[in-house]
Queue: 2 jobs
Job 1
Amino acid sequence: MHITLRQLEIFRAVAQFGRVTGAAESLYISQPAASMALSELEKHLGPLFDRNQGAGLKMNDSGRALLPKACELIDRAKELENQFAVDGSYESGSLVLNASSTIGNNLLPKMLAQFRESNPGIRIDLEIDNTRAIEQRLLDFKIDLAVVEGVCLHPDIEVTTWLEDELVVICSPDHPLANKGNIPLSSLSNELWVLREPGSGTRELFDEMIATQLESPKVAMVLNRSEAVKQAVSDGVGIACISSLAAKSTLDTGHMATIGVTGLNLKRHFYLLTHKKKYKSTVFDQLCQFIIDWKPFKKV
């Protein structure tokens, strides 16, 4: 049996893209070359994908068993290359980090800048999405790690509680309830709401803590970014419930106000997510530990 790292790279790319064409483009090789490499690998190991006409390639049980092992071998090889490609004065390598909107927009730019100061050889690629989409990418080994605001219960994902956050109900400064406190939730039953999209941690907490107490919340708009929600609220489209961290800068400028609702516990945590079967390189461990140890709120 003769299996090459290149074959495993192509297998991983096909698993991630679901098509040989997309995998080939991502690796800057021709589609026939990618198809040939995948065919050779499957001659050794047996079929790794179910092939349905027009539906792309979907991993079978053998493919799913191979994927974490292939990712580990590829990551170990890259780690070895990086170790001997530099003078040894600092670590080098790259990682793909995903974050949900509140964290990615409000915390990670500062955090990653500080990480880079002491780790100049490590490149971090960051993408922002909602918790459920990020969870699936982690399960598919498309990313290395994630920080999210939604709860994750998948058995293959290791969850580390990170930072505490709290949601606030916001409105335009011209709203009759702007900056008032001790407002019962029932007083908001006729309000129009601007919500985050399903799958976001913010939306999940709203659905659990607020929507269940309002018989049928009136939804004016559903948006997939906190910045868009804040803009809509500032423009008077409706009220919203978002992270106090995301709301802070707009509240400070006076373009938005809060409504102090009684009897609501809108506290939550942010979480660091990693795949239990992923190979943990030195660079990977460095970033994970930096995230866990980082204390931002005294500086915000």
Job 2
Amino acid sequence: MADELRPGQSVELLKELHILTRDGKLNQDSRRKLKQVYHLVQFIEPLLEQVLADKPDVQLVDHGAGKSYLGFILYDLFFKARQSESPGSRIYGIETREELVRKSEELAQRLDFPGMAFEHLSVADAITSPRLPARVDVVTALHACNTATDDAIHFALKKQARFIVLVPCCQAEVASVLKKNKAQSLARDPLTEIWRHPVHTREFGSQLTNVLRCLQLEAHGYQVTVTELVGWEHSMKNELIVASYRDLPRKRPSERLRGVLQSLGIEELGERFFTEAAEASA
């Protein structure tokens, strides 16, 4: 079992997160969980290193944190070893379920993880909350359901995040708008056949949602990469979107975003997938 853990990794934490059994063993299910977490961490650690290369601390906000698996593992593997040289670094777990916030606070205190904070807030409230920094470096949102991922993107844009890491989940809003406007679209464009059947509406709507998110991020100057998460074979929700702010040209992705919305007859979603120009004029 020791060969499968990172050097210095807290066995007590892994037991608390139910990745290890109470006697410190790994079963098949926990091996898969550990593989998933390590795969996510390997994407995020280089981003944290980039931040620390330019400033003395890093501020990471995890939206829809749940039990804060990712935050605790990141703190244990990355932040803990840098406490003395980067005491101002923080991980903030944002969660709407108060009992999970309370349990995470208790666990962080028990493990002596002083750089972790947990807030019982919605994403909208988190944008204006004085308990969070005015600017953050990294925003994560893993399996934030439906529009919660878009709310996390909104938060990241408002906080001028340098990096955004998203694993979207169960997107329904775009599919519902496609369904509502289907009859009108069918009369206008034969490509509507792509999502005419309900199961195709759901599948196409899910993919389209992430396409729109990527265009939106690019329209705010981000470089976007999309890949799959290794070890998430049991779940269809295994798409990983990583956005890095590069101050790239905004005009083309903004035009493409508006063009896609117009072509598919879903212009009403323009407010959710807003571009920098639309935000400035609001």
